[in-house]
Give the backbone structure.
Amino acid sequence: MSNINELTITEAARALRVHKFSVRELWDATAAIAIAKNKDIFAYLELFDANDVDIASAQKRIDSEGDAAPLLCGIPLAVKDNILIKGKIASAASKMLENYRASYTATVIEKLQDAGALFLGRTNMDEFAMGSSTENSAFGTTRNPYDKERVPGGSSGGSAAAVSANMAIAALGSDTGGSIRQPASFCGLVGLKPTYGAVSRYGLIALGSSLDQIGSLTKTVAGSQILFNTISGRDVRDATTIPKELYPFKKVPNKLRIGVPRALLEKGVDADVLAHFNEKLTALDAAGHHIIDINLPTSAYALAVYYVIMPAEASTNLSRLDGMRYGLAKCGETLLDDYLKTRSQGFGPEVRRRILLGTFVLSSGYIDAYYRKAHAARAVLANEYLAAFKQTDVIAVPTSPSSAFRRGERNDPISMYLEDLFTAPANITGMPALSVPMGMVDRDGTKLPVGMHFTAPYQAENVLFAAGMAIENIHV
Ligand code: GLN
């Protein structure tokens, strides 16, 4: 058997049930590796003390309930630093909230606690989840476990690096424009962004409220399914949540119709990434699935739409961080001075850039030209996807145009924003999407993972999991 911290959720759950090892042993093995590797990888901002974690209850439950115990019972997970756990710091990797302790617990955390899951610590991220590399954290950058000179992706880079380096069995992230799926692709993991409203956002520090979803980073599609089933469902504290009765929305067909928007892949995708993508499609075709050419012309505008709507919502959400309510407070000569001091010292450069962008597109002179136009285009894009789903079950693209890039390489914001090319449409439309490993590419003698990205219609996560498993089952 491999080291127990290297197991998947399913393997660890099975082993706990047959008493191959105890919950305590699984926790200790995972926490020890997390502590040892964190100096190098910096996946965690904080590792929690074992004494604060109810290891004994999880063990008791497995002993008494056996197979009936939830699969996540006793499984050590990592949690992105923008998800609240009462009494713990939740900083969103920002100086603004460096010492902020959550006064309540997020619904997803409550659900996981009810299932007996254990939390190892809070993971590093881009400040307020703005970024694609985890370089925007106010507390230092996380390294990619495959090559420490490279980024793990972002903004959930700490969660991805933690799972990829076996410093957690699985992790929670948040995804506003690709922040679960792109780091999953860079770190060789499965990343799920659920349907908008499938998972409660209560207790998630908001970035773009109409785009945000909490999701998972796991080693397998089965793990993704287990976490999704545990954290999803209606929550009276988040009015956008969907009741479980509406699932499953769709029957999973035996043979999938897989739409490929070829025109989108013509420019900007690395040749070897595209080669892996085509190879997997050929294998899926050989396995009896149907590959269908589709057109999604409005996707060309998806990034522009995203970078209007997201900053607009972010600037609104972050207005509460003014030194009067939570977090950092710097005193000046006047009230305005207080605001200026607090916000310029508390927020990093990327956050300030987006606040400026967001307030600009919402300002009275420009709201029609930018924000309302972006909203109109958002509706067109969603309709285009809905039309495409009349003839397809899932839509496939590479998750990112490239593999993990070097630290410091994308120093202009536009080149960083291009990372979201294939992932942002799922947030704009609200549809569920999954990244699943599709192979390794060679960069300067190092092998780096790349991911395949599937989008499904609303509430059709089950179809996504089937597509992901079809990729896992290809052995070429
Ligand atoms: N990379 C995107 C951005 O910088 C996505 C962020 C996210 O999903 N949280 O906005």
In short: The two ends are 25 Å apart (CA to CA). Residues 129-132, 155, 175-179, 207, 310, 419-420 surround glutamine (CB under 6 Å). Residues 138 and 175 are 19 Å apart (CA to CA). The chain has a mean pLDDT of 96.
